[in-house]
Amino acid sequence: MSRIEIRNLTKSWGPVKGVDQVSFAIPEKSLTVLLGPSGCGKSTVLRLIAGLETVSSGTICIGDKEITHEDPARRGVSMVFQSYALFPHLSVRENILFGLKVRRVPKAKQQARLADAARMVGLQDLLDRRPSQLSGGQRQRVALARAIVSRRRVCLMDEPLSNLDAKLRAEMRGEIHRLQKEIGLTMIYVTHDQVEAMTMADQVILLNSGRVEQAGPPYVLYDRPETTFAARFMGSPPMNLLTLNGEQAAAALADLPSDRKKEPFHRHQGMLGVRPEHVFIGDTGLPARIVAADYLGSETIVRIRLDDQVLFARTGKRIPPGPEAQIYISWPREAVCLFDKTGRRLPENVL
C-alpha cells in the first residue's frame, strides 16, 4: 500500500511556522502536485515526508504505517531533487546504481533494474558518460532513472524541471507523467508552475503561507476557485476580479431577476470573478476601453480598462491595439464567481 495521509502537519522554526496544520490524503498510484508561490511551504512539506526535516507536530502515514519519526532510509520513498544531485566523478551507470550498491542489492538484480530504467528514460547509449558530458534534460533523466531503479512505490519530486528550457520542460512533463502511470508510482510533485500542475496532476494542493488554500482536481481549482488567492494564482492571465458598482453589476448580470441584480455586491461588498476566455468584446454590455492587445498567434490577450480597473480578455480574433479604443464587454452568468469581502467564494445559489 502506498496511500499517503497527512494530518495536521506543522513545522516551526521558533515563532515562525513554515507549515501550519496541513492535512491532505493522496490515493495510491496517483500524481499529486503541491502548488504555490515561493515560500509557501510546499518543499518543506515534501522534505517532512522524506524525513529530511523533523516534524514539529502532526502525523505522516504511508499505507497503514505511521512514519512521522521513522528513519529516512526506512520510509520507502525515493526523491528527485531540483539540482539533480548527481555525483560528478561517477558515470551515468554508477550514478543510477549508487543507491542499490549501498543497500547491497545483488549484482544480477542491479543490472536488470539498470537495463529497465535506462530503457524507460532513453539513456541506453549514455551509460558510460559523466554528468558534465550531458545536457540538462539528460541529467534530469539520470535522476529519474535513479528513482526508478530503487523500486520504491512513493516518489517525491522537488521542482525537477525548473532548470530546463520551456521546450524541454514540456517534453519532460509528458515523460514523467507516462512513467508515473506505467510504473504505478504514488507521486508528489512540487512546483510553482501552474502549467505543470494543470497538465500532470490528478490532484492539486494549493498552498499559501504554509496552509492549504484549496485541494482538488485541476479543473475544479480553475473553474471554481474557493478564494481570491486561488482565483489569481490559477490561470495565465489570472481570473479577473472586479469590484462593480450597482449600475455595473446590474448590467453585468443582466439576466438575473430584477430584484437581485444589485444584491450580491451591495450586501457582501465583494468581488466578481470571471476568466479572460469568458470576457466577450461586442456591441453591447459594459462600456470599456482597450489598453493593449498582445497577439500570440492562435489567440490575442486584450487588456481592458473598465473605469479605474484593468481586466483581461482572451479571444481568437486579432484585435487592433488602437489606444483607448471604445468597446463593450460582457460575460455569461454561468461563468461568474462571486467572492465576499473576506475573499471566500459565495455559494452558487447567490446567483
Q: What percent of residues are in strands?
A: 25-35%
Span of the ends, CA to CA: 44 Å
Secondary structural class: alpha+beta
Order of helices and strands: EEEHEEEHHHEHEHEEHHEHHEEEEEEE
- The rounded Rg comes to 24 Å
Stretches where pLDDT is under 50 for at least 5 consecutive residues are 255-265
Task: State the major sheet.
Answer: 6 strands, mixed
The rough form would be described as globular
Helix content: 25-40%
Overall pLDDT, averaged? 87
Number of helices: 10
Query: Which assembly state applies to the chains in this document?
Result: single chain
Q: Report strand order across the widest sheet.
A: 6-7-8-3-9-10
- Total beta strand runs: 18
Structure report:
With 351 residues, the chain is of the alpha+beta class. It is 28% helix and 29% strand. The protein contains 10 helices and 18 strands. The protein has helices spanning 42-50, 92-102, 107-121, 136-149, 166-183, 194-200, 218-223, 228-233, 246-252, 263-268, and strands at 4-13, 16-26, 31-35, 57-62, 65-66, 77-80, 154-158, 186-191, 203-208, 211-216, 240-242, 271-274, 280-282, 286-295, 300-306, 309-315, 326-330, 337-339. The strands form 4 sheets. Strands 6-7-8-3-9-10 form a 6-stranded mixed beta sheet, with helices on both faces. Strands 13-17-14-15-16 form a 5-stranded antiparallel beta sheet. It has a 4-stranded antiparallel beta sheet with strand order 2-1-4-5, covered by helices on one side. The chain is globular. Residues 255-265 have low confidence and may be disordered.
